[in-house]
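Section 3.1 - Work completed
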Amino acid sequence: MLLRLDAGAVVYATGWNILKRPSFEASRQLHAGPLHDLRVPAGVALIGPYWYTRDFPDKMNDGLDLLRKHLAPGDRVTTFGYTDPFSFAFGLKPCRDGNQWWDKNYSFSTNVCPTAEQYLGSATLVMVPIPDRSYSSRASMTLETMKGMYNNYLQENFQLVETSQDWVLYSRRSVSPETSRAN
């Protein structure tokens, strides 16, 4: 039974690749090589983590383009929210930030969670999504919880770099020699 399902999936994927890929709108492709083959059809109206799924390519491209403008060699990025697509998209060394998937009351709670230093300590850049406020999702609730838990550390150790339509980018504040000697 399982082999038949796997074979069916291979046939479906091969058929899609031959028949639909050539007609897929180039504007719906993501602006990062490793994510180039991720395709979201325009007519899909499902609710995603922060935006309607049909808007996902535009929203992610907004974040990819914002981050690309400010990336420097050695940067490590993390994302407030359900997961971090940016490290993979740009081939960056991922942060040592605990959870790979943030889902309130599933992978963390306000009582059981990484400290702010464990979560944001190795990051040089932090991306924060700006959710679509026309609906609510579990991911939006997770994001708000994370902001409540980690915002003080973020504000003390990071500075606002730029805000796009769908994302906010922060970079780690420079540590002065006097400050580093005091610690």
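Second construct:
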Amino acid sequence: MNDKAPIKKILLLSANPLKTGQLRVDEEMREIKEGLRRSKYREQFVIESAEAVRYRDIRRAILDSEPNIVHFSGHGEGEEGLVFEDESGQIRLVGAEALSNLFELFADKVECVVLNACYSQVQAEAIARYIPYVVGMKKAIGDKAAIEFAIGFYDALGAGKTVEFSYKLGCNAIEIAGIDESLIPQLLNRCEKIDLPIPQIVGDNLASEPHPAPKRKRSSIIGIGGGIAALLLWGISSNFFRPQQPPFSLNNQEIPGRLSEGDKINEMPSPLIQPQNTAKFTYFDEYFFQGTQGQKIQLEMTSEEFDPYLELYAPNQQKLVSNDDISRGNPNAKIEFTLLESGLHRVVASSSQPQEKGTYNLRGKLIDR
């Protein structure tokens, strides 16, 4: 960022209804403002805020301030939505599709959305269809961790850093504070295509990396040699290396599975940390189904032995959506998504925590037929 960069307007929204657990949202707002006011590029930011936001206040605040960055601090309930109040003081949940449709209308102005609320990754993934950068929380996050993330994130923005760097610094701020929740914030980048990982042959199966991981350098593939790289990519596109998993279809049939030693593994690096650290990894299974553009599907993974984690990938290997916990108190995973294109989609079934093993059930179906 330089002295001639355009002014960025930040809209801070908070909601903490009386019938919900009390959060330190006032402290979070104060720390964000203080950090930006003392920052190197403070003249290039304008901060506006709205507290005790009701569901209809969201659009009013965006219309009034025309922000580039929208930050929400409050409660989230996963698939059920973010928590607001209505005009009578009752709790009103605003779901992912409603928020996604709202931000689509402001996509020409809004560049980044931060949802600093528990289980808000569901809403973040929906909003990320239209907004370049969106941050959400993949599970419950403590009040102190949420505040530390916000301080680190906006300290970096105020220093002229990119959104990606600011996100990483926010995660690191949680680590520096000694809180074991630095992997909960998730950054989604609408403009970013996920690089095809280098395949590994495990038995007769193709192993790849379903969780977000540091991008491989281009030399990782180019160094192998053009012929081998072309062969590997051909193998992916032609289904030559498809895993020998049970058939998976969207007929609401339950498929039993098991995560165990000997399965494919995926590294889980810390947001700022060395890719060579393989101490943390998850086992995973993958399934494939033929989908049609416009189909609305539901995938659900349940287990009594570990915390499930689900991911859905497009035919071009771009990650479309993921889910950790359905809601507060329900650690199972569920995805509802409208397919963007026709073709062979990949479902990755794994665990939220490193090296978890055990049995699970996976089910897929069409909804709103």
